[in-house]
Amino acid sequence: MRQELLKGNEAVVVGAVLAGCRSYYGYPITPASEIAETAALLFPKVGGTFLQAESEVAAINMVYGAASSGQRTMTASSSPGISLKQEGISYCAGAELPCVIVDIMRGGPGLGNIGPEQADYNQMVKGGGHGNYRVIVLAPNGAQEMCGLTMLAFDLADRYRNPVAILADGFIGQMMEPVTIPDPVRELPQRPWAVTATDATRDNLITSIFLDHDELEAHINALYAKYAQVEQHEVRFEEYRLDDCEYVAVAYGIVSRLLMSAIDQARAEGIKVGMLRPITLWPFPAPRLKELAHTAKAILVAECSTGMLIDDVRLAVECRIPVQLCSRTGGNVPGIAELVAAIGRLRESAP
Amino acid sequence: MKDVFKKPDSFYEFFTRSAAADKEATHYCPGCGHGNLHKLIAEAIDDLAIAHRTVFVSPVGCAVFGYYYFRVGNVQAAHGRAPAVATGIKRALPHSIVISYQGDGDLAAIGANEILQAANRGESITVIFVNNAIYGMTGGQMAPTTLLGMKTTTTPYGRKSINEGYPLRVCELLATLEAPVYIERCTLEDSKTIMRTRKAIRKALEYQVENKGFSLVEVLSPCPTGWKLEPIESRQWITDNMVKVFPPNVYKDKPAEPREELPSPVFERDAVLNALGVTDEVASGSGHAPGDFPTHEVVLSGFGGQGVLLLGQLLAKSGMREGKYVSWLPSYGPEMRGGTANCHVVISSKRIGSPYVAEPNLLVAMNQPSLEKFAARVRPGGVVIYDSSFVKTVALPAHIRGVPIPLSEIANELGNAKVANVVAAGAIIALTGMVGETVFVELLRNLPKKALLEVNLKALAAGRQAAERQIKQPIPAALV
Q1: Running DSSP on this structure, what letter comes out for residue B272?
Q2: Residue B318 belongs to what H/E stretch?
Q3: Does B262 reach chain A within 8 Å, measured CB to CB?
């Protein structure tokens, strides 16, 4: 077993290298900078490209270019930087280019601060750029997943020819935990659509422009047929102590870690509560939540945003049972006691 | 029989990608310069026999449909971003010939930074910059290269320097940079200037074939529709107006030695693992999580530079090597530069929920502010180790045990103030047993600064002894 103590941000780069990613284009920003720094250190060692771009906008467009060639490629940033990349992400989705975008969320709006927040939920999960498209969004809650889900992200990006985002917060990026290092991928998928500067791909075209209205509509319909496949096959979540539960708590990222501790405490106090942690924020584990809503009495959503994740939970349970919010923002995370109290209040809300 | 005139092979015979009924005519207006330029580029691609490895980056604007015509790999870029897209392609495909084709608004307004930076990096690409002093496709708005006094739909009274500034001279600007090898401005006024443009495009592509670096050819090109002139008049308009502001010239032609070859990606298993610095070696103890080990939740705090972050990492790593669950969470950002630095460490036999330690059962305070900030959070029965060299005022709650150790004085006596954190480690290990001393020593031996090993080992022992003098009984961790 190969085990290293790594920051989440470092584990992302290790995962990328193992997944066969050989180019990184990025721009420094706290609390994501270690991703660029680690990539600058590691990519040259595997014959890869690391380039600090002149801007977030240039970085995502370099990714667009590299992805056009069929290379596994990535960029990373934090919230304000991701806002700048959104246009490029829309182009990648429109041109069906596989690529990985990592967002280590910080406080907003505007300059906000560099503390951990989860307020990019809407801009990542709902698609912050223009047009009809979706981004597959993976939400790691520890260093091991920062490595493993990054590897998965590259596979999903290739499988569906779509951008895939890793959505984590400042704590998950900065925290160090043991990471078991898997083997590098053996074989990269074929990409017959790519422009590889060879005779065989001379007639290939990477574009998102469809001037004819019907043609564009057909393209969008094809994208959404693909997204339906993603929804059918790629939903991922973790269940924690849900077996006999009367109450369900939902959280992702750092909050899911805090919630684990809170659930242990609430259980010790005799409350039958468990957690459903979405690992894919899109596709959202709506079917499982809907199922749980048949037996559970109430749901708690805990998030470091003012109520973004809760919208998807409410849609999933179709208002069958009460859904309550425990929210902290500004770089604060909810305390364990705060979460235990919120779980306690579920009993009052339940019919 | 030899053809003396034919369509270049790098053009499609029929433009089937176009939705227009006529698959043989281009979508360009009569008298437009794009047609001339496309032909010059296609002929150069043919003559250099590079069609199979050429990638054409289509821009926004009228040439957005470059891929209707060029039978080469095609990638469509967003407004302003063609040089960034071209960079991504060229870095991934060093053998490719990348042509980035942009108009004036695209290149010199919304994409001014991208072209500047790509040129400054000396990307081995060829940029064709079409300057017609107007936004053609969007319907005749002002461009950064619009002449003073020129009327456009967004300068209906004529461009005024006081409001819109002056026409931007891209060649002159980029020629001040070190990296570009070739920058020339040409025009499409008449057959003579067209032939000169032909030569320039060829030269720029040849330099790329030879991997010499960044080239840009600016071409003053007619836009009869945007200028509201007849085709012939618009050629004359270039001569009468544009060349005075944008003089045709070779602004730079300094082909250096070919650029260094880009490295080839490595995918071989052992080489990749080696690059990551991991080996197949089984870490001592890993995978043998102890059965029932109390959870230690620790806050380590001090001045930036006292090494509390490293101390936390070493403790977490020791725990990891012993097969325990561990987490380390730092304070990050401006706070760690100059102010106090702190980190949270959790070591447990169970999967760790919160890595954020709200109520530590051990606080290590290496200065007065740390003690003041965190002491009240320590849970009942918990312990505070503090550096009595700095901490002078101590008012701990009754249910918390204070352990004063002059960490920094001990470190100074050993001849290195920087090892106070290792003194603290000795005390922590002696008092709590959260990790074993053996594994911690192993980590000290593997630190990069070998010269410090001896003093580190002394510091660890001194910390242990100081703690043992303080308290005879080891302190139990809080049970969680």
Answers
A1: H
A2: helix B308-321
A3: yes
Residues B325 and B350: beta-carbon distance below 8 Å:
yes
Q: How far apart are CA B448 and CA B455, in angstroms?
A: 14
Q: Are residues A179 and A216 in the same domain?
A: yes
- Report the pLDDT averaged over residues B432-447: 94
Assess B390–A contact: CB distance below 8 Å, yes or no: no
Q: What is the mean pLDDT of residues B1-12?
A: 83
Helix (H, G, I), strand (E, B), or coil: what is residue B369? helix
* CATH code assigned at A322: 3.40.50.920
Q: For residues B145 and B137, give the distance between their C-alpha atoms in angstroms, rounded to a whole number.
A: 15
B267 has a chain A CB within 8 A of its CB: yes
Q: What's the pLDDT tens digit per position in A161-214? A: 999 999 999 999 999 999 999 999 999 999 999 999 999 999 999 999 999 999
Spell out the domains of chain B, with CATH numbers in brackets: 33-253 (3.40.50.970), 286-470 (3.40.920.10)
CATH of the domain at A64: 3.40.50.970
Contact A82, A146 (CB under 8 A): no
ipTM > 0.90? Answer: yes
Mutation pick from B209, B345, B354 vs chain A, by most beta carbons of A within 10 Å, is: B354
Beta bridge partners of A106: A116
Q: Supply the range of the domain harboring residue A326.
A: 238-349
* Number of domains making up chain A: 2
Count contacts between A and B (CB, < 8 Å).
238
Look-up of token digits 């990328």: A16
Confidence of residue B471 (pLDDT cuts 50, 70, 90): confident
Query: Using one digit for the tens of pLDDT, what is the confidence trace for A69-116?
Result: 999 999 999 999 999 999 999 999 999 999 999 999 999 999 999 999
